[in-house]
Amino acid sequence: MPSESPAQTSAAAPIQQLASPPSTGLLMTGGGARAAYQVGVLQGIARIRRSAGAKQGPNPFPIIAGTSAGAVNAAALACGADDFDVAVRRIAEVWRNVRAEQVYKADTLALLGSGARWRLVLGLGRFVATVLRIKPRSLLDNAPLAALLKRMVPLERLPELMRAGHLQALAVTGSSYSSGEHVTFYESATPTQAWVRSQRLAMPCTISHEHLLASSAIPFVFPAAALKMHNHVEYFGDGSMRQTAPISPTIHLGATRVLVIGAGRMTEPREQLPPNTLTGYPSLAQIAGHAMSSIFLDALGVDVERLRRINNTLALIPPELRARSALRPLELLVISPSERIDAIAARHVDALPGPVRRLFGGLGAGGSRDVKGSALASYLLFEPGFTRELMALGRADTLRQRHEVLRFFDWAQ
Fold it and tell me: Which residues of 143-173 are buried (b: 16+ CB within 10 A; e: fewer)?
């Protein structure tokens, strides 16, 4: 961790007034520790902008949306919207040095407590557990994350940044266990009509650290977070659950072009998979990792395909007819890992805290050779070796798409 907290240094910086920003949106998806990749992408974008001689300083994304750990990165970037390069450096410093104990309690006593409660419920049965008032809430306790968020995400800066024109809107998403709906919480510089779709809705509010905790509450792993909804309280878990249209918030908030940063490969060629990962009965860790991938990764690929099909369809409509409707194409740039993060995690799984590593071992995550079993571990590998390798991959993938990035932002070639 840096010796000087982002909240302290950011709050001291004067905020310059800006003209109206362009409607460029940024979406960062979920994935626990995998979100370190997003920081590498941001570093790559900052480097490309500097080398192109583009105007430095303010954030190039006036509309920022995020889910799960991506919501944390989104909010941290938004809170430094008056100086993009400085904000990226501060976020990167946190991710470069993060440790699991800064995110969740990883000591033996904490894991024994939560594990014992689960075993009692499973062993004694629900009725006996109810009589004994045993109600395990999650596998891990993410109480340390609240302290990290306060240092990393100075949300008190948002109103002034919006008034100065550096930021148009910030949106984070959560999934309500209480109502079953997927909710996008957003804070906007100008009044924006909330939207309602099937099983998802938007709610204007003042974004808080509680919203970030709710959005990043990985199901079963971290406890649900209580959030006030109008005149009642609902309990929320990770926003990646039941997220059918991840890119939607940026569009509703006015973006006409969107950069999407994924946390997993958009396609997974079968011929590149190690043969031994496709045979034999799956371990519990493999099943859990597969379920996590369904929650965190699949919806984004589907949404990108859908938007590209819509763009292709709109291109067939004569411009004069399209002008009479509310339909418009969306410029989309997607940057996602070129390597399998499961395989990268397998090389670092031994860096997990001992009690967590032993827990995963009991579930069948077999160490560096078990790529499939390491998928589950990848979401909790908040350790420097893993996060730094993901950041390096994010930078490399972004620099490899240099020409696409320059074209997307209209920066000089």
Answer: ebbeebbebbbbbebbeebbebbbbbbbbbb
pLDDT top residue among 2 and 17 = 17
Residue 19 has pLDDT above 80, yes or no: no
- Residue 236 sits at φ, ψ, to 5 deg, of -120, 150
The residue whose two tokens read 């045993």 is: 134
Can you read off the two tokens belonging to residue 184? 């996008």
Question: Which is more confidently placed, 106 or 97?
Answer: 97
pLDDT recorded at residue 377: 84
Q: Name the residue among 275, 260, 264, 399 with its Cα closest to residue 339.
A: 264
* CA–CA dist 165, 252 (Å, integer): 19
pLDDT at 373: 59
What H or E segment, with its residue span, contains residue 354? helix 354-363
Give how far the C-alpha of residue 259 lies from the chain's centroid of Cα atoms, to the nearest Å.
14
Contacts of 328 by beta carbon, 8 Å cutoff, 6+ apart: 256, 314, 322
Distance (Å, whole) CA 412 – CA 405? 10
Is the pLDDT at 310 greater than 90, yes or no? no
d(CA 142, CA 69): 13
> In whole angstroms, how far apart are CA 354 and each of 13, 36, 89, 96, 372?
41, 22, 30, 21, 20
Of 54, 76, 47, 74, nearest in space to 63 by CA: 74
Joined tokens for residue 302? 């589907």
The predicted-structure confidence for 217-254, as pLDDT tens digits, reads as follows 988 888 999 999 988 999 999 888 878 889 999 999 99
